[in-house]
């Protein structure tokens, strides 16, 4: 099984009710907004999806619900972020059973694995699922870097196909292309470097603010792909203050507040997270309201 590693794939938020249950009604509303905007895949249970707070059964409900909603229009990816190799293999196999088309994988959680341990962890999961895998390389937040030499070993597994490139080093896109060509697809994972990464050869964008602004996000991707760079840059410059809400410890709360303003989400987060309050909330609202006040008119990006 393989998928097209390209385009915009939102790392969607998980919606909760006021009583801390899964809010599948609002979740469906957001997924439909993403599909209407023209996204190219859906990523479940990532950092924005509050993966560490979800029960195993909740993850499975979200996967099955999304697979049914999407109905094969775009691939559904499930994040694997576990503390043990055994648990990671089990998560991958459940995702496959529940209809996911691919996996996004983080290094082991809590324990800071060494290079060999990290490689063996990823390979063990790859060897126990038929699903294609995207390695999430985010040493800034997760303290483990997957080097090019490590990828050389990992690519011996045919189903390790892509990287979510979140090192914050824009030149890494070129290093990967120079070393691996098209064997390792690149999905940029940092909103504030997204357009730069795409212009340097990244194949797609695992996006955050897309959760609240799906059309603008997809428009940037489609415009740059069509060579209409100035138009893409103009939208991107408008978008940047919002995109910066993603590179913040409160990214979940920030983006959920933005979803409220675009009417495709709620502020509900799962404890220990709490909704924004006080001066912090005022500052985020100022950014959101100012951006909505001069929201750009988009070209017909779906028919470029």
List keywords for this structure.
Aldolase_TIM; 8-stranded parallel beta sheet; globular; single chain; alpha/beta; DapA-like; 304 residues; Dihydrodipicolinate synthase family protein; 44% helix; 12 helices; lyase
Describe this structure in words.
The chain is of the alpha/beta class. It has a single domain, classed as Aldolase class I (TIM Barrel). 44% of the residues lie in helices and 12% in strands. Strands 1-8-7-6-5-4-3-2 form an eight-stranded parallel beta sheet. α3 links the parallel β3 and β4. α1 runs parallel beside α9, α9 packs antiparallel against α10 and α11 packs across α12. The two termini are 29 Å apart.
Outline the secondary-structure elements.
Elements lengths: L6 E4 L13 H14 L4 E3 L11 H15 L5 E5 L4 H13 L4 E4 L9 H12 L6 E5 L1 H4 L5 H7 L5 E6 L5 H10 L4 E4 L5 H6 L4 E4 L6 H12 L3 H15 L7 H11 L16 H16 L11
Parallel strand pairs: 1-8, 2-3, 3-4, 4-5, 5-6, 6-7, 7-8
């Amino acid at each position: 099984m393989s998928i097209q590693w390209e385009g915009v794939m939102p790392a969607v938020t998980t919606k909760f009710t006021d009583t801390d249950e899964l809010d599948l009604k609002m979740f469906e509303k957001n997924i439909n907004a993403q599909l209407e905007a023209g996204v190219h895949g859906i990523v479940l249970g990532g950092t924005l999806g509050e993966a560490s707070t979800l029960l195993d059964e909740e993850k499975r409900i979200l996967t099955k619900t999304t697979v049914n909603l999407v109905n094969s229009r775009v691939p559904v990816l499930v994040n694997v972020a576990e503390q043990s190799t055994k648990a990671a293999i089990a998560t991958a196999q459940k995702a496959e059973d529940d209809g996911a088309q691919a996996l996004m994988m983080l290094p082991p959680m809590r324990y800071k694995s060494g290079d060999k341990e990290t490689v063996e962890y990823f390979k063990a999961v790859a060897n126990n699922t038929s699903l294609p895998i995207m390695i999430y390389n985010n040493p800034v937040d997760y303290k483990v870097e997957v080097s090019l030499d490590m990828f050389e070993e990992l690519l011996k597994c045919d189903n390790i196909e892509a990287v979510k490139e979140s090192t914050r080093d824009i030149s890494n896109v070129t290093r990967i292309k120079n070393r691996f060509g098209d064997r390792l697809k690149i999905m940029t994972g940092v909103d504030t470097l997204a357009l730069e990464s795409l212009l340097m050869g990244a194949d797609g964008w695992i996006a955050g603010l897309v959760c609240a602004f799906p059309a603008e996000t997809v428009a940037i991707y489609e415009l740059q792909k069509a060579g209409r760079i100035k138009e893409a840059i103009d939208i991107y410059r408008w978008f940047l203050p919002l995109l910066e809400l993603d590179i913040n410890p409160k990214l979940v709360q920030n983006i959920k507040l933005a979803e409220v303003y675009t009417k495709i989400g709620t502020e509900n987060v799962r404890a220990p997270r709490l909704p924004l309050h006080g001066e912090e909330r005022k500052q985020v609202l100022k950014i959101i309201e100012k951006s909505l006040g001069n929201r750009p008119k988009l070209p017909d990006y779906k028919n470029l």
